[in-house]
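User: I'll paste a sequence; please echo it back and then give the predicted structure.

Assistant: Echoing your sequence first, then the prediction.
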Amino acid sequence: MTAGPWPRSARLGLVFVVCLLLSTATIGDAAESTAAARAAGLLPVGELFWPLLADPKQSQFYVSVRNYDVAGDSVTAAAVAYGETFGLYRWCRPQAAWQVSLAGALFAQFNLEAPSQDLVNADYTIGVPLTYRGGAYSGRLRIYHQSSHLGDEFLLRNQPERINLSFESLELLASREWPRWRGYFGGEYVFHREPADLQPGGIHGGVEYRGAAHGIWHPVAAADVKSWDEFDWSAEISLVAGVELGPRGPGRRRVRLLVEAYNGHSPHGQFFTQRMRYLGLGVYLGF
């Protein structure tokens, strides 16, 4: 179904927000993260490897309204996610800490222009991350499963050719933090994959910026880039910019209001072979 572009006032508003935030804009404070990492034992508070701000598949809670452009068609959709990383146990040493956790999420998209606002696609992920922190350095080794499914009403209305996407993957990311910036880089290998002819290799990196606090809020911005052998290593770029409300530091409740932009192959499982762009506005919750 084809829809017109967003109203001009909405587009100008999004551009204004991006320009305002980038003109004022700084990541997590490494000293505070290191101090929090010293609390060892069962059910630890917070995370050693901070959640990625711009990764479309970061386990977290959010709701976003997006305008998608796919093959020349434009549609307005709601994207939601329900997910979290739950710390199970943390080991500490004088200069470093390790933690094993359980992470799961549901990512879904709803066509807001369909008569019943159809569920289009849902991706389910579950995994076990092993994370590390030593001062300003952190890392995440994660094995996880993903399966993807189309919504019933979308199937009946559109009768698309369904792709049974399901796989397990092993991911390794390393991160370095500065007072205002964070950079990360790593790779991923997909196995037990369906379709069986999927190419398994991928690389993943990004940069994040958290600005100085202005009362209870501070500006944030991030870029996340993925590249897969399956698509001849073309870049999939996710950008976010906005404000974060709440105290800084792991294990603190936070709310982020983010302008989002994406260009590349779809991060939504059943449509992973399609190239798309989207622009959106989302509310993200951190626990």
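The chain has a mean pLDDT of 87. Helices lie at 8-24, 30-36, 152-158.
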